[in-house]
Design goal:
56% of the residues lie in helices and 4% in strands. By secondary structure, it is mainly alpha-helical. The protein folds into three domains: 96 residues, no CATH class; 237 residues, no CATH class; 167 residues, no CATH class.
């Protein structure tokens, strides 16, 4: 294109340009052909060479890009080089001092290897680019290749722009999650110097992993590559979009996805893609996402209330085992597997089987638990309201961008002198003050205004707060039929407190434990799957 551009400039200036034509095309017995003769590009090259408009509505993406780059060339070519005598010297320099290397490949595999290392954009290709190139290289039919390329590009653009928050790495994050969820069959041994396996390789260089495991993936002929593009990449990308949207925006019918995202559980998309399989309709997909996310919700909360870490690296091996166990399972079997896992779990809300952890009854506010305590209080508060036929306000409780965000509120003011008769030391008072049973979730403005008041003085102000806070006050138990019905049906020990001593906090702690057992009950999975 640069040679064509210089030719036109020299021709307009009346300078010699004939030697450029031999570099642009050759004459074979009176039939000219471009030296770089690609059938799909002839039409656009003809338009550029003969200075005609190019208006083909069916032009492929590469032809349109060529046209755009030529237009960039005409507008951006340096003015100082446009002077006829300087342009002529530039032509001589270009044709005599610049070499172009022709690299030929004897097979698609070699061509792919070259494409991995070199590209026309002058920067390293992303793993997504290289995976696309490998899959498209096997498509012999130009129309099929063009269609698949367009579908791939549009899907990548959808991923990048998902939820109005551009993320240029989201395509790679999705592909890693998809391939791990659906195809990883091995993981590195947990010993020093162990070799990376499927799980790790997919997470770092998934493009090479696909190429090295083409037999495992059933890749061979063009139809196999089309299948992986349409039934694999695009199909699972649409489910991934659903997961990301439910993580970012509270979605009825996918509630647990939002809950796990609030707990910053980054393995969630990978785990949720695992049970999806060909033939699942939209409702089956939704149910699988929900029951799997609900399993994760229960599994995660059991651990955090027992002070067990759930960080990315800490749970990686456990997540690999989970993925391989639930991969492409029918809905009914999926639910059975997940419930059995929870029944056999060594960790519950009441503690761990080793006897060293006491579960939610022993949950206190500290540096480790603060973020999870906030989540637990938001879930307890929203659950009491939804069980009383009120809207689910969990998104409101955890929203940090509101004008008056919610914060953790201590029922007791930080005044040891008010509780000297119950606690022999200030340290024991502060320890007891931080237990879950002595905490609420209230707007930060409330905390600022009333946190230093005694319980008896601040009690009247709870009337305008969430239902869980209002249950401390006598007035909550009058003219509140839906809440009263929930109390009677559940049997939970709700009651008002005129005073809030150590004994009352222990009672409240037991109430919270019972609410937690109701919220994080494994039987939820059966109801959510409608089995």
């Amino acid at each position: 294109m640069l040679l064509i551009f210089i030719r036109h400039q020299l021709q307009a200036a009346g300078r010699a340009y004939a030697d450029l034509e031999d570099l642009i095309y050759s004459d074979d017995f009176g039939k000219p052909s471009y030296n770089l003769d690609i059938p799909e590009r002839r039409e656009v090259l003809d338009a550029l060479f003969h200075q005609r408009d190019f208006n083909d509505p069916n032009a492929d993406e590469s032809s349109l890009i060529m046209l755009q780059r030529y237009e960039d060339m005409t507008s951006e070519f340096p003015e100082e080089l446009r002077e006829p005598h300087i342009l002529l010297m530039f032509k001589y320099w270009l044709t005599r001092r610049v070499g172009v290397i022709d690299i030929q490949s004897g097979s698609d595999d070699y061509a792919y290897a070259i494409f991995e290392a070199m590209n026309d954009r002058g920067r390293p290709l992303s793993p997504t680019d290289m995976l696309k190139a490998y899959l498209l290289a096997k498509l012999d039919d130009p129309n099929s290749r063009q269609k698949a390329n367009l579908a791939w590009k549009q899907q990548v653009q959808r991923l990048h722009a998902l939820d109005g928050e551009p993320d240029p790495e989201r395509d790679a994050k999705f592909i890693s999650a998809w391939l791990r969820a659906q195809h990883a069959e091995s993981i590195r041994l947990r010993t020093a110097g162990a070799e990376n396996k499927d799980w790790e390789l997919i997470g770092s260089t998934f493009n090479r992993w696909v190429r090295d495991n083409k037999a495992k993936l059933g890749l061979g002929n063009p139809s196999d590559h089309e299948r992986l593009i349409y039934s694999g990449f695009i199909r699972y990308a649409r489910v991934y979009e659903q997961i990301i949207q439910a993580q970012d925006t509270f979605t009825k019918g996918l509630d647990s996805v939002f809950y796990n995202a609030h707990n910053a559980f980054t393995w969630q998309p990978t785990i949720l893609l695992a049970p999806i399989r060909d033939g699942d309709d939209e409702e089956v997909v939704r149910k699988k996402l929900l029951v799997t996310a609900t399993y994760l919700d229960v599994w995660l909360i059991r651990r955090v209330v027992n002070y067990i870490r759930i960080g990315y690296s800490t749970v990686q091996y456990a997540m690999y085992l989970l993925v391989t166990e639930i991969r492409r399972k029918p809905l009914e079997e999926l639910v059975a597997i997940l419930i059995e896992r929870l029944q056999k779990d060594d960790v519950t809300l009441s503690g761990a089987k080793d006897g060293e952890r006491r579960g939610i009854r022993d949950l206190r506010l500290n540096q480790f638990s603060k973020r999870y305590m906030f989540h637990v209080l938001a879930r307890l508060s929203s659950h009491v309201e939804t069980a009383s036929d009120m809207p689910n306000r969990f998104p409101e409780f955890v929203c940090r961008s509101s004008d008056d965000p919610y914060d953790i509120e201590h029922v007791w003011a930080d005044r040891f002198e008010d509780h000297k008769q119950e606690f022999p030391s200030k340290e024991e008072f502060h320890e007891f003050r931080d237990y879950l049973g002595g905490l609420l979730l209230l707007p930060s403005s409330f905390n600022r205004s009333f946190q230093d008041l005694s319980y008896e003085d601040k009690l009247q102000h709870y009337s305008a707060q969430n239902l869980l806070a209002r249950t401390l006050k006598q007035g909550c138990y009058a003219n509140n039929p839906r809440f009263i019905r929930y109390v009677e049906q559940s049997g939970h020990p709700f009651r008002p407190y005129a005073h809030f001593t150590k004994a009352e906090q222990l009672e409240r702690r037991e109430l919270y434990h019972q609410l937690a057992e109701e919220i994080w009950n494994p039987k939820r999975l059966i109801g959510e799957a409608n089995l």
